[in-house]
Amino acid sequence: MKIITLNLNGIRAAERKDFFPWLQKQNADYICLQELKAQEADLSSLMVSPYSYEGYFSYAIKKGYSGVGIYTKNKPLKVTKHLGIPEMDDEGRYVELEFEDFIIISVYLPSGSSGEERQTFKYKVLDKIYKVFEEKLNLKKNVVVCGDFNIAHHEIDLKNYKGNKKNSGFLPDEREWLSKLFTKGKWADVYRHLYPDEGENSYTWWSNRGQAWLKNVGWRIDYQISNYEYAIKAKKASVYKGERFSDHAPLIIEYK
Fold first, then answer.
1. Which of its termini does the chain have fewer beta carbons within 10 Å around, N or C?
2. Number of domains making up the chain
3. Residue of 108, 203, 230, 255 with catalytic role
4. Would residue 108 show up in a list of annotated catalytic residues for this protein?
5. What is the domain extent for residue 85?
6. Is 148 one of the catalytic residues?
7. How does pLDDT run across 201-254, given as a tens digit for each residue?
8. pLDDT on residue 160
9. Please, are residues 157 and 195 in contact by the beta-carbon 8 Å criterion?
10. Which of 29, 148, 157, 247 is catalytic?
């Protein structure tokens, strides 16, 4: 099984950068998308159902903002777009597809970089989504959560860790939330399971400021996490940087 996750930073912008022809060549089973920056009416037929895939989306109330989706060739038993958590539901930050023995989720956790108000909002979301993730493991199915978490976990996960210790995305409480998820929460960081010591090749996001992309001053903030039993089925993972569709790069993981 091949799963791709990518923050598009706008699905219409990504289309102009030839994201869809690339996607067709990948022959992935599931493609999880974040930050659509579009409403249903904005999507072309290609964006809704590219090639032999069907898209399942959750949109933000605010136009041109947030939004997540999943492409798959398989018909789910159940689609969940709303959790009863206004902070997630109103901003289109969660979509889940449930199959007979497998669940896949595309999630876009908020950034707190714009100021204290959004950082407080972020912590509120983290508290609530932790409980959701906990419930998913209790279903006794294999679960993969893909998405932009807007958190780098360890110093190895970003180039300039010294200069970012007081910045959103690398704050102690955010990092502790991930640590809790991967220990007490019993989730596995699939990329790190495969490559525990990989640094600069693991980055998935680069700021548009300066020459971050050219100098590879990046962050690893995009994840595929799963239950331990499924994580050990991961064969290989890569971050695709051959083309630029967004300020993020696709994280591709193949499972047995």
1. C
2. 1
3. 108
4. yes
5. 2-255
6. yes
7. 999 999 999 999 999 999 999 999 999 999 999 999 999 999 999 999 999 999
8. 98
9. no
10. 148
